[in-house]
Amino acid sequence: MATTTTANGIPAAKRLRAIGPPVWLWGVIVLLALLPVVGGKTGLISNYGFLQLSLMIVYAIAVLGLILLTGFNGQISLGHGAFFAVGAYTAAVLIDQASWPYWATLPVAAAVCFVVGYLFGLPALRLEGHYLALATFALAVAVPQFLKYRHFEWFTNGVQGINIFKPDPPFGLPLSADQWMYLVVLAVAIFMFWLARNLLDSRTGRAMMAIRDHAMAASTMGVNVAHYKTVVFGISALYTGVAGALHAIIFEFVSPDSFRFELSIAILVGAVVGGIASLPGAVVGGVFVQVIEKYADALTKQITSAVHLPIDLEPWTIYGIALIALMYTMPMGIAGGLALLWRRLRGS
Amino acid sequence: MTRTTRRTLLTGAAALAVAAASPAFAQKKYDEGATDTEIKIGNTNPYSGNASAYGLIGKTIEAYFKMVNDNGGINGRKINFITYDDGYAPPKTVEMVRKLVEEDKVLFVFQTLGTPPNTAIHKYMNQKKVPQLFVATGASKWGNPKEFPWTMGWQPDYATEAAIYAKHILETVKDPKIGILMQNDDYGKDYLNGFKAGLGKDNEKLIVQLATYEVTDPTVDSQMIQLKNSGANVFFNITTPKFAAQAIKKAAEIGWKPVHYLNNVSISVGAVLKPAGLEASQGIITAQYGKDPTDPQWAKDADMVAWNQFMDKYLPQGDKKSSFHTYGYSVSATLVEVLKKCGDNLTRENVMKQAASLKNLEIPLLLPGIKLNTSATDFYPIQSVQLARFEGETWKLFGKVISHDAASQ
Prior knowledge:
The complex is a heterodimer of chains A (348) and B (409). By secondary structure, chain A is mostly helical.
């Protein structure tokens, strides 16, 4: 095949491929988009099932935010639950108090979280490793208390939380509210993953990864380390904030106790288990966060009764065992482990 | 709300109208969750987490329904009781209740526990028109049939209880100067507002000091000192168990001996009064509505004997000193009465209707003289309590059963 080169010297065929996702990914996207029709009409997937799927995708976006920061920029964060909460409350307050349409709250949540993340990134410049982890941990612990603070109660509604309602599908589409929101969440997720892919493939992405690999070398090469670190913090917060806003809309409820420290840990665990430096890892991580939360309890009960253990297992025992096993066998996360397997099978 | 549910509801309502007009044509009417052979009931309880002590209530209810099923069920139908753990976390409650309603398709949700969890699902249940019946919390907002016709409480609401304390103070204390310690949230404010309403506008000035605390505070020592220095001779103690114990202990330490009213949620001898010190707890007044299993006066009582047999057979590992088991027993008995009255008309609307038409219903293990009453405008089943004073090592009832017509807010 004759390769025509363009002005940049990159073969035309390769450039075309770089623009959009590969063919198989298109197939997956189309299949996912058709789920409401296929699953809904036949009753295979209940509304509750679509809620579960939407939650998995939402957590995938949140985990993606953390992956951009930690996996691709080397800054650790134990406090992404805080940005999730800020995004969720932004959306909830706008919908509940100002009667904004749900789709308009997403850009606002994104902007607010970017600013919050950027502002947090500024002092975080001085912190590395453990100290940054502690600082973000403090943020995660503080946010629920801020939300309960009595002087903010006039708009946060304090401990009672805010109830909002899912929007009905527009244009009278024959979908249920859950199915429509599933499509919305899917569309937003695809858009944000596409943006992330392009970000990572660009000069900014290379700068990010250079900083992660060796900040001093990067700055010697002319990369403005401080600028990129704060901006990436902002972008990471933006992603997690949009996830929070979507979560508020589909879950129809926010409260300070919805965003406790455990959420930050769950996002981090999801990122590591999925694959800390891979985009597909975010998807795996998102699924992991949602599935584990629900099934750790049930699975433990089933195993306890099946194996007739004499002791009463705590629900999270299985979770702990699974984590240890995963980290031992797949230190690069599930996505990393699968990629390794794929490469070995292909013999390269 | 899907079209199917609306149609079913309209059909159910129409059938009800027909059935009411011509009893000869009474047909079986079901909503999702009810069939000829079973009634599906949903529930969430904190079986894990900070409030897991309350999980005993869920276990008691489960055991009670097993007993009912063993005795033939209700009108020939077995109860299928589905209960999930929500860890007292409102988001988990939302998810589990959505699962119950949309996936497990229960007929209604019963005895969901805790004010925050129930607040989280309050609007959802009413939007979906699924009964949120006999919730396990005493906040007054559960008795609001006009705005939330699908939600109903069971135990005496906090406002009623506080109003009764207020009335007792006005009747028995000469020249009262009232100091209040209040947890600064939904539950605390509920008690305070009821108390003020019971005092009446003219008497509100009798409150000389209102001290508040956050549930995240480590102690309430400074608030107690503040209250003593205000010169109050009456103390209304609106605290959850941990802080109640601290308050009682501190009052004794600083030598403050007011007339002490303690809210019903913190009257556990084992969890509050023993740690605070039984000596320091002498003379505390509270409001009871159930027979305490540790009270020797009920040892030979028919209800108590039956309860003991139930515990022996269905909850042999249960703690016979825990009032959670008597609470669960009483509230389950209430639900069984309501379901019996529904007969073959097991629509959600009829369940609420029957729950809202209890007339002087007597339930096992409630104090003699306390009866349940509900109507289309009164969604507070139990509004009577009897005062008790802590003497020696247990609560001694005194006076008569007091009722209070709390106006729904």
